[in-house]
DNA sequence: TTGTATGCGTTATCAG
DNA sequence: CTGATAACGCATACAA
């Protein structure tokens, strides 16, 4: 309510010094600084960020675009971003990317363009070239998380490597009849995660010289998805694999649940390995490949922050790899003697 | 990049008419409107929302405060809010309420006060009186979701009623040895949901004249929480209850998982009922009390929108009840003959 | 219907 | 170290 002018008057200084005293940018005599601070406190003064933005051109606000809020990976990344942003004094404007093309375009042409964000973080979104252009036209630093976007700095795990790691672990235990229960290839609105995880799985089998006909069951990236796919897959004891590489932990958990329901003991009757290290993984004893989405979010913020402060130190155009590691628990063991 | 002035010049009109033509607020001759629109399109013009905010005092932006992003209920509410906001042309600024008091206070005194939001939605946050005052001092409409906040319009389900409904269902099936596995009473940073659900549970037993010593197992509101508590609770076949009322579906799912692991068949050996209707509930056949968090979010947005547009039609101070209903699936049945 | 002029609350650029 | 003063980009009251 109260403006800088009032504070200045009360402190007996000009608006300019009041501004300087409060922002701490320039040198102000301790006495003046003191008086301004007191006046501001008494009046309950707080800067109008809109006014400040108007003149500085910076909003202290970054936009985050994500297709989902309600999925573990995305929510986790979001939390990481939010924490890092708050720490830096920035607001976070959240945009959920709609699946309908029309609304999606509205997001880009209406919301994103309002000059309200100093930077953009895209999580798990694959951007069309035209969309990338649009973002670049904003002349604001942008980074992606979850997969490579040509033209934009992105950070992600090597999905192919992740599933290869998981598969190798099973092969190392002696498994040869392994099936990948992963994301539907047609339904990857996000990156080609599904395809890449499938590819890594197959590469590992190829590397080991293992045949793999009928090696893939597509489903949705969720516990129920894994449950249903596993129910179908495991129904016939004859054709049943000895191990499953799940596309993510949620699928793995669904598969374990299905196995239990069918009376199959995990891991002696069936080994299951996931990808993510979901908070529920430990409870299910799930062996998995850990990625830390929260940290990915924090790092993304670091990146845009640096790009904003450092004299336009351009972002590295290359994708940045996030480390992953295998967490062995109790859902995997050697296959049963056939 | 391009300003209103440039558009005006290109269209051969004044800034004022250009502004009017674009906002559509006042009457502009069709010809002029046409020319302005064309000029704007050619230049790729888009309003500077900061400049507009500075003069109008409205930001087209609402703040959302929530303690968690990564929990089903909260994420779901958030999605509902986001969708409704986007539809109305508003941005959503997300604030995660930190658990540390110091940072929490920073949120209120630094972030919230920057005059950047036209309204506030608090989800699952219990506000201290001083915090309520602070929000009221902003003179912006505010609504809460998830529990009553004195002084602020809130929408929530009747938690006591929800667990009473769940408990009555079990009693109706003939159960008398029922335990509530719910949220820890010390750990309810959000509302007193835990306590209220426990109270409803006990009230239902009292109503039916059923004794209930040792009727409560506190745990965390999560699948692993339910799992661990149920593992301990069900270990001893002698003292085992015939039914569990879970504080939420996640706990219920953890409990079902634990039961299965212990060889207890659900529901013939143990009935379990939850609260929420979590997306995983169906897969576990979980009988539960449904609440629709997404709709709660949408309704909250409706409310603040109305308060913002309608000539300061004040928000109803009373809490608004959200309907709930019992969804009977396959996790509940009559108790086994003792 | 249109144009002119003013102000929104800051920060930044100068002199002093 | 401090004080005028000019932007920043837009919306609106008022006059035409």
From TrEMBL, chains A, B:
<keyword id="KW-0804">Transcription</keyword>
<dbReference type="Pfam" id="PF13377">
    <property type="entry name" value="Peripla_BP_3"/>
</dbReference>
<dbReference type="Pfam" id="PF00356">
    <property type="entry name" value="LacI"/>
</dbReference>
<dbReference type="InterPro" id="IPR000843">
    <property type="entry name" value="HTH_LacI"/>
</dbReference>
<dbReference type="InterPro" id="IPR046335">
    <property type="entry name" value="LacI/GalR-like_sensor"/>
</dbReference>
<keyword id="KW-0805">Transcription regulation</keyword>
<keyword id="KW-0238">DNA-binding</keyword>
<dbReference type="InterPro" id="IPR010982">
    <property type="entry name" value="Lambda_DNA-bd_dom_sf"/>
</dbReference>
<protein>
    <submittedName>
        <fullName>Ribose operon repressor RbsR</fullName>
    </submittedName>
</protein>
<feature type="domain" description="HTH lacI-type">
    <location>
        <begin position="2"/>
        <end position="56"/>
    </location>
</feature>
<dbReference type="InterPro" id="IPR028082">
    <property type="entry name" value="Peripla_BP_I"/>
</dbReference>
<dbReference type="GO" id="GO:0000976">
    <property type="term" value="F:transcription cis-regulatory region binding"/>
</dbReference>
<dbReference type="GO" id="GO:0003700">
    <property type="term" value="F:DNA-binding transcription factor activity"/>
</dbReference>
